[in-house]
Design a protein that fits this description.
The chain is mostly beta strands. Helices cover 11% and strands 49% of the residues. Strand 4 and strand 5 form a beta hairpin. The chain is globular.
């Protein structure tokens, strides 16, 4: 199963549309240099009052469906 790691640092203002459900996708660049378009809803549980910050790992199946998203 493909696995990608990436860093994310979004302020509370930047993620407001994610938390409110207005943004549907977040575009990130993996450590491998690939651009990934991930459903914003997957990040809601990682939102804090400061925003979203940290290193993440996403695992997908062969059809690029997300199997797991973890904060490392």
């Amino acid at each position: 199963m493909p696995k990608f790691e990436f860093n994310m640092a979004l302020s509370a203002d930047e993620i407001r549309s994610i938390y409110e459900g207005q943004a549907r996708y977040i575009l990130v660049e993996s450590a491998q240099g690939l651009k990934l378009q991930l459903p914003a809803a997957n990040f809601r549980r990682h939102v804090t009052t400061e925003g979203i910050k940290g290193r993440f790992s996403v695992e997908t199946d062969v059809n690029n469906k997300i199997l797991a998203l973890h904060k490392l």
